[in-house]
Amino acid sequence: MPEYPRVLPAGDCSAVVEFGNTICEQTGGRIKSYMHILKQSAPEGVSEAVPTFRSVLVQYDPAKILYGELKRKLEALARNCGSEDETQGRVVRIPVCYGGAYGPDLTFVAQNAGLSEEEVIKRHAGREYLIYMLGFLPGFPYLGGLDEKLFTPRLETPRVRIPAGSVGIGGEQTGIYPLDSPGGWQLIGTTPVTVYDPGREQPIPYQAGDRIRFCPVTEKEFIRIKESGVWEF
Fold first, then answer.
1. Using an 8 Å Cβ cutoff, are 196 and 118 in contact?
2. How far apart are CA 52 and CA 56, in angstroms?
3. Whether the predicted pLDDT of 86 surpasses 50
4. What is the distance between the alpha carbons of residues 162 and 180, in angstroms, rounded to a whole number?
5. Residue 5: is the preceding peptide bond cis (ω within 30°)?
6. What SS3 class is residue 174?
7. Alpha carbon of 11 to those of 52, 61, 161, 201: distances in Å?
8. pLDDT in tens, 25-75
9. What is the pTM of this model?
10. Distance between CA atoms of 34 and 83, rounded to whole angstroms?
11. Sign (positive/negative) of CA torsion 2, 57, 165, 26?
């Protein structure tokens, strides 16, 4: 069994710092702590660090630092990180209109879980979700902490187009589609806010290590938020 954390090469200008082989909040906390340490004490030559479910991808300039030296420094920093850093992630509130045209698969999710649609909404919106990482699309959050009763298989045939703002469940995870795209997750609702806007000062209102709480809204409230663009994350 490999010992963690460990540093591995990833091409000629990247390294991977692995913190485990499972997806869990403890590993996510160590990754969050490591990202905080890198922001404060990144070795010379490091240009970017990208968190994932169980590791951090570190990109560097080999003209400024050789892999061997980088590996030693990354390992030293990894030994100093705890299960979480001292700066707690924010809780970001995302409004969602559930069911109907906004969530065409809510009925299936409810039937699969043996619950009413109202209970699915209550359970989905009744907890905070840790953002393990962003990926697939700009601003697509991979969220941990979904109620086990809501685990739902992905669609057998993915949709060609899922509208931006759709909130879905795929297996053991839930997330938000920030852009129109193909996808195979079960759609249970839609948010009226734009979660990815490259024209904003902060294009994405959350980052890995933050938490998301979904807030149910009526169709009337959905339209008001959509038209006004006013929502406090």
1. no
2. 6
3. no
4. 5
5. yes
6. strand
7. 17, 12, 34, 32
8. 888 888 888 988 998 889 999 999 998 888 999 999 999 999 999 999 999
9. 0.81
10. 9
11. positive
Beta bridge partners of 174: 143, 169
- Containing 34, the helix (H) or strand (E) segment is helix 25-41
CA angle 53, 59, 76 (to 5 degrees): 75
Residue labelled with tokens 């490091």:
46
- The H or E element containing residue 97 is strand 91-98
For 148-169, the pLDDT digits (tens) are: 999 999 999 999 999 999 999 9
Q: How far apart are the first and last CA of the chain?
A: 42
Q: Which residues of 112-135 are buried (b: 16+ CB within 10 A; e: fewer)?
A: bbebebeebbebbeeeebbbbbbb
CA 71/CA 157 separation, integer angstroms? 43
The identity of residue 146, as a single letter, is L
Give the position of tokens 């995870």.
173
